[in-house]
Design a protein that fits this description.
heterodimer; A: alpha/beta; Pyruvate-ferredoxin Oxidoreductase, domain 3; 7 helices; 22% strand; B: alpha/beta; Rossmann fold; 3 domains; five-stranded mixed beta sheet
């Protein structure tokens, strides 16, 4: 088993929380893991990404090669497209449909969505609305996205839910329940393989 | 115990478990998390001896304090980003001459590709320059393990050790297996020979001779190191030398059937004997893969016959600049690129920007308006979040070079006849390297305005304590700026007129003045409010 994942978004959106949950579940499965993060200046409202690699065999490179990623998980549609060069031709894009517009020349949203939809394997969800519908705060949108990505991650749904519970355990039962609900909402609204 | 650690955290945990007594550092990407991890460890520590872990004012004070701790026989750690090595170079170079008593490790975190830096300098040059051993881990586990090995070596050979990492090691997470035993700190045996630490020429000459003689020992250590490994291949005409994390990119792409001779290097001085062995085993071409500048590629030809072709960043086999990637190493090994999607031209750049509500924004808004009232203003910026004032929408600064340069460059410009000549510097950068420059301004009454944008923290690296918080007016007056020309404003939109007026008055004053624009960083403010709320 080997999955190379690019997590994408804008600084502050919470891509690293997604990585934390996947990492927790992967380690619990006894998988190897490497995760390259972006810290420092680029966090200030700029584009951020993290390369997350999980595998049943030891992993060499901290970075994913172009054409090597199985999956892009993005909290922002344009940010998903920023890394398509890294995606395998038959790789998956799982992205939020909500644009984060903090630049004057943000592309036309409809055209942007058409570009995402031009990829055969894509899931595009309004993750913030789904979070709210599930009774979770908008900040749990990243967990909705994670739920939608579960079928592509190669880690069992129940194992992933266990991971969510462990990661949020110290924040109390209510926070755990809301985050689990958010993940389930994403899972229910995504695509099953 | 198994932990999921960043490379930086693995270094920190390795130092703690090796019996560290003090860490000295100034924040700088990608090194900051080392000290932060030790601070977190200290805040939770219930047993054992304390570890000193308060931030230093700059890398030079950090290096010197660490040398003092080593002098007393304790194990000390100094951490910085690569350009910090320039700041501490005097202390660093001479610590190689004094040697150490307690183990002393200097961690330099290089930033090839300049993700958060102004250059790509390779700290291995500093290690070679100082003639001390260098460790360059290829994995987070090695980073952890090397700390104890390096402390033992530092004490055994009486030398500081340079630990060199790069962004992808510092900021990449992997599982690290750590020791479970309770760390033991050294006692305080004073140096056996105090003359070693008194660098009068007569003593220093003796020390330097010893350091030169020690080179063969250092190199033998590298040849025998378990972190360096040579293996002869079935197709030994081609050899590959890979250093530090470059080894990972090689392994990512290497196929058993290639059969090349391989040399992994994670400890220096460069083990010449191993590359000579590669050649005597038949290597006619040697590909050198190293993160950073072509340090080894430049060295190797001197050790081997001239018929052997050496390929790497200098030959164009790998890119001359920027960090390595699995892709460029793949290409260097002669492999076809993986099939991939074309990049999508609809994607536009999303440069980092100052946060909404940040005080630097209001400071720049006022400064820009006032600057426009003068025919030819010059504004010298400095290193911090506020460097982003160079970008849209502010386009406010005309220079940014290195820590503290805003003040001294504005002085030099004023000396040349420029008016208004304005420096913009953050509070932490000011105490790091701006105070001495301000003294230069005062001593010639330079016609400059030094605008200290004080957000009460070291913001860009994530909000660490700032050395001058609560002391800036006293420092400026103490250095000799006239009290009536040390002005304080609060950068908020409602104070715009007042700020502009203060700036005008100080620009029109013919002499050195300081304007402090003070408002807490909104990121640390949010954190402080949240903590307060949780405390109830």
């Amino acid at each position: 088993m080997k999955k190379d994942i690019i997590l994408a978004g804008v600084g502050g959106q919470g891509i690293l929380s997604i990585a934390t949950v996947i990492g927790e579940a992967a380690l619990n499965e006894g998988l190897y893991l490497k995760q390259a993060e972006v810290h420092g200046m680029s966090q200030r409202g700029g584009d951020v990404q993290s390369n997350l690699r999980i595998s049943s065999d030891p992993i060499a490179s901290d970075l994913i090669a172009k054409g090597g990623a199985d999956l892009i998980i993005s909290l922002e549609p344009m940010e998903a497209l920023r890394y398509v060069e890294y995606l395998k031709p038959d790789g998956w894009i799982v992205t939020s449909s909500a644009p984060f517009i903090n630049i004057p020349n943000y592309p036309d949203l409809d055209e942007l969505k058409r570009h995402v939809e031009s990829f055969k394997n894509h899931v595009m969800l309004d993750v913030e609305s789904l979070a709210k519908e599930a009774g979770a705060p908008a900040q749990a949108a990243n967990m909705v996205l994670l739920g939608a990505a579960i079928p592509m991650l190669g880690i069992d749904h129940d194992k992933m839910i266990e991971g969510v519970k462990r990661v949020f355990a110290r924040k109390g039962d209510e926070v755990v329940a809301k985050n689990v609900a958010a993940v389930e909402a994403g899972y229910a609204n995504g695509i099953k393989l | 115990m198994k932990h999921l650690l960043l490379g930086d955290e693995a270094i920190a945990q390795g130092a703690i478990d090796a019996g560290l007594s003090g860490v000295y550092a100034y924040p700088g990407t990608p090194s900051t998390e080392i000290t932060e991890f030790i601070q977190l460890h200290e805040s939770r520590r219930k047993t054992g001896a304390p570890i000193f872990c308060k931030w230093a004012t700059n890398e030079k004070t950090a290096m010197e304090a660490a040398l003092g701790m080593s002098y007393m026989g304790k194990r000390a750690l100094v951490c910085m980003k690569h350009v910090g090595m320039n700041v501490c170079a005097d202390a660093f170079m001479n610590a190689a001459i004094t040697g150490v008593n307690g183990g002393l490790i200097v961690v330099a975190a290089d930033d090839p590709s300049m993700h958060s830096s102004q250059n790509e300098q390779d700290s291995r040059f500093y290690g070679r320059f100082a003639m001390i051993p260098i460790f360059e881990p290829s994995s987070q586990q090695e980073a952890y393990d090397m700390m104890e090995v390096a402390y033992l070596m530092s004490e055994r050979l009486h030398t500081p050790i340079l630990m060199r990492v790069t962004t992808r090691m510092a900021h990449s997470r992997a599982v690290v297996i750590t020791k479970d035993s309770e760390p033991q700190q050294n006692a305080m045996p004073v140096p056996e020979n105090v003359k070693h630490f008194i660098l009068l020429p007569a003593f220093a000459k003796q020390n330097y001779n010893e350091l030169v003689e020690a080179q063969t020992v250092f190199e033998q250590e590298a040849v025998e190191s378990t972190y360096n490994a040579y293996s002869k291949g079935k197709n030994p005409k081609i050899g590959v030398v890979a250093t530090g994390i470059a080894w990972n990119y090689l392994m990512e792409n290497y196929k058993e059937e290639m059969g090349y001779s391989l040399l992994k290097v994670s400890q220096y001085p460069f083990p010449k004997a191993l590359v000579k062995q590669m050649v005597s085993d038949g290597a006619e071409t040697i590909i050198v893969i190293e993160e950073g500048q072509p340090v080894i590629e430049e060295l190797i030809p001197a050790y081997i016959p001239s018929y052997v072709k050496v390929l790497g960043r200098l030959s164009g086999t790998l890119p001359r600049v920027g960090e390595l990637s699995p892709d460029c190493v793949r290409q260097a090994l002669g492999l076809e690129p993986l099939p991939k999607n074309e990049s999508d031209s609809i994607v536009v750049a999303r440069p980092p920007a100052l946060c909404q509500g940040c005080g630097h924004r209001d400071m720049y808004a006022a400064l820009n308006e006032v600057a426009r009232e003068y025919p030819s203003p010059r504004i010298f910026g400095d290193i911090g979040c506020y460097t982003l004032g160079a970008l849209s929408p502010f386009h406010a600064i005309h220079a940014c070079v290195e820590m503290g340069a805003s003040i001294t460059m504005s002085k030099g410009a004023a000396d040349a006849g420029q008016h208004p000549s304005i420096a913009v510097i953050g509070d932490s950068t000011f105490t790091h390297s701006g105070i001495t420059g301000l003294l230069d301004c005062v001593n010639s009454n330079a016609n400059v305005v030094i605008l200290i944008s004080d957000n009460l923290t070291t913001g860009m690296t994530g909000g660490q304590d700032s050395a001058g918080t609560g002391k800036l007016e006293q420092i400026c007056c103490g250095v000799g700026v006239e009290k009536e020309h040390v002005r304080v404003v609060v950068p908020l939109p409602k104070n715009m007129e007042e700020i502009k007026q203060v700036l005008r008055e100080e620009i029109d004053y013919n002499g050195t003045s300081v304007v402090i624009a003070r408002r807490e960083c909104i990121q640390t403010l949010k954190r402080h409010l949240k903590a307060k709320k949780q405390q109830g």
